[in-house]
């Protein structure tokens, strides 16, 4: 079984990497970009029987900094 964890900065948290990407896109001639948020995707290969609750515990303890980041779990 696989799980994919999407981690993003929470709304209101400054995203300097996203801002750098937005600026670079504008410099390359891509108009109309008002904002960019950058995140990460973590793909886990799980043993059979591993619950989504267990994946959430992994997120809470290591994979996401829950003070400034939110996460979403997708079981594949």
TrEMBL record:
Pfam families given in the database record: PurS
EC class: ligase
Compartments, as annotated in UniProt: Cytoplasm
InterPro entries for this protein: PurS, PurS-like_sf
Catalytic activity field: N(2)-formyl-N(1)-(5-phospho-beta-D-ribosyl)glycinamide + L-glutamine + ATP + H2O = 2-formamido-N(1)-(5-O-phospho-beta-D-ribosyl)acetamidine + L-glutamate + ADP + phosphate + H(+)
SUPFAM superfamilies per UniProt: PurS-like
One biological process term in Gene Ontology: 'de novo' IMP biosynthetic process
Main localization category: cytoplasm
EC number: 6.3.5.3
Keyword annotations: ATP-binding, Cytoplasm, Ligase, Nucleotide-binding, Purine biosynthesis
Molecular-function GO term, any one: phosphoribosylformylglycinamidine synthase activity
Pathway this chain belongs to: Purine metabolism; IMP biosynthesis via de novo pathway; 5-amino-1-(5-phospho-D-ribosyl)imidazole from N(2)-formyl-N(1)-(5-phospho-D-ribosyl)glycinamide: step 1/2
Single GO cellular component term: cytoplasm
Self-association state and partner proteins as the record states: Part of the FGAM synthase complex composed of 1 PurL, 1 PurQ and 2 PurS subunits.
Family of this protein: Belongs to the PurS family.
Name assigned to this protein: Phosphoribosylformylglycinamidine synthase subunit PurS
Gene transcribed to yield this protein: purS
């Amino acid at each position: 079984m696989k799980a994919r964890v999407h981690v993003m900065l929470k709304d209101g948290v400054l995203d300097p990497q996203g801002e750098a990407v937005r600026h670079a896109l504008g410099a390359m001639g891509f108009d109309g970009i008002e904002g960019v948020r950058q995140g990460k995707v973590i793909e886990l290969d799980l043993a059979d029987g591993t619950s989504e609750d267990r994946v959430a515990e992994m997120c809470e303890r290591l994979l996401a900094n829950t003070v400034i980041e939110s996460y979403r779990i997708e079981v594949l």
